[in-house]
Amino acid sequence: MSLKQRMYPTEEQQALMVMHAEHARFVYNLGLEQRSMWTKDKRHFRQKISVYTQCRELTELRRELDWLRAGSAVIQQVALRDLDQAFKNFFAGRSRFPRFRSARDPKSGFAIRNLALRRINHKWAQILVPKIGWVKFRLTYHYQDAQQGSSARAVHHNGLWHVSISTPPRQKVPADTGANVGIDVGVANTVATSVGIFIQAPSFTPGEQRRFLALQRTLARQKKGSNRHARTLAKLASLRRTLNDRRTNWVEQTTTALARTYDLAAVEDLKIVNMTRRPAPRPDLDTPGSFLPNNARAKAGLNRAILASCWGQFTTRLAQKMDVVRVDPRNTSRRCQSCKNVNALSRESQAVFACIECGYRAHADTNAAQNILDRALTTNPGTPGARTQKPRQRAASTNPLPTVQTVG
Ligand SMILES: [Zn+2]
């Protein structure tokens, strides 16, 4: 988990923090360039590049460059560990190949390890930043929660500084109601539960939507790189941020309410990344060389809706707050809850499920949610929660130094 708090550095501190961010970016990019050049047959490098060799070289570089030496060695080393983690994530298939950090990126920052915090009063606390000292931040979480953290990241965005403190996941508090719930996530209804409740994620208000589209049209007319263009971009970003905050709020409130009501939640194990990928072309077997429609346009619309309805964030947070069983999603929308027959024709429309075998009628999403719960209970008979998702353990590290965790 990460706790994001607004920082209030003094002007003097701010200048030094900007310097830290620039140094972190410089060292990160330099390390990335070195790693990108290295291949097994380039023997002149003699030895494999690792975070250790890079840290040694950083020490040498600091001897040569006065301006780099003026910064913090700790912060610069952490940037190299950050890079190392980025490569580990890439080789494990968790993320893309690390990219260079651009000076024009509106977001910049640096990581802080060996977190030290100090409380001023119930509203304010301070964080120790290398070479700068104590920097004030506004406390909106419990101080005890922030204290659990081991590392943090200071981020500069839109002229504001925030600190994200990464903390271990909080202990789950069981609702102890003995009730279980099946959850179907979708486009028409963001969340449908097996007891027939529908919950909609917030979106833009009609006014905001008009404004958003108008700004997009304005943007298209403006010259790239001009001041007006930049101003329109900032306005669009601000609207997106509003929506994002609203959604995050909704995810927090909805998942907390579910965790307080039910002991176990069953959700579909949807690989959202797979679902948002462009559909494969379907070759026409009758006329070789040509292709049948693959519903790419329809799916593209759906993709946007999927991403917009924030399922990933929802299921992640839910699993952090309560026991969650992920089930195989196949046929959950085609199976009849009453007679258990699977038939694609039973799905009368987007909203209506009408079984063609037994005549059972229900809202399609409710029926699906019930099937999801059924499947969770039959795959874990008797012991609900037996195969639940455990909080992710930090991988045991062979390094004497702990690896940097990227704070989201
Ligand atoms: Zn039926």
In a nutshell, what does this entry contain?
The protein is of the alpha+beta class. It contains 11 helices and 16 strands.
Describe what you observe in this structure:
By secondary structure, the chain is an alpha+beta fold. The chain folds into two domains: 2-166, no CATH class; 180-201 and 255-379, no CATH class. It has helices spanning 11-37, 51-64, 66-69, 73-91, 143-147, 206-221, 227-261, 272-275, 296-308, 311-321, 364-379; strands at residues 2-7, 107-113, 117-119, 124-129, 133-138, 151-157, 160-166, 180-185, 191-193, 198-199, 264-268, 282-283, 291-292, 323-327, 352-354, 361-363. Helices cover 40% and strands 18% of the residues. Helix 1 crosses helix 4 and helix 6 (206-221) runs antiparallel to helix 7 (227-261). The chain has eleven helices and 16 strands. Strand 3 and strand 4 (124-129) form a beta hairpin. The structure holds zinc ion. Zinc ion is lined by residues 336, 338-339, 341, 355, 357-358, 360.
Top keywords for this entry?
408 residues; alpha+beta; 5-stranded mixed sheet; 4-stranded antiparallel sheet; disordered C terminus; binds zinc ion; RNA-guided endonuclease InsQ/TnpB family protein; endonuclease; Transposase_put_HTH
Ligands and ions found: zinc ion
Question: How many domain regions?
Answer: 2
Helical coverage, percent range: 40-55%
pLDDT < 50 runs, ≥5 residues: 382-408
Number of strands: 16
Strand content: 15-25%
Q: How large is the count of helical segments?
A: 11
Average pLDDT, all residues: 82
| Terminus-to-terminus distance | 9 Å
Radius of gyration: 26 Å
Main sheet: which strands, in order across? 10-9-8-11-14
Largest sheet: 5 strands, mixed
So what's the oligomer here? Answer: single chain
Can you tell me the overall shape?
globular
Order of helices and strands: EHHHHEEEEHEEEEEHHEHEEHHEEEH
**Class computed from helices, strands and strand pairing:** alpha+beta
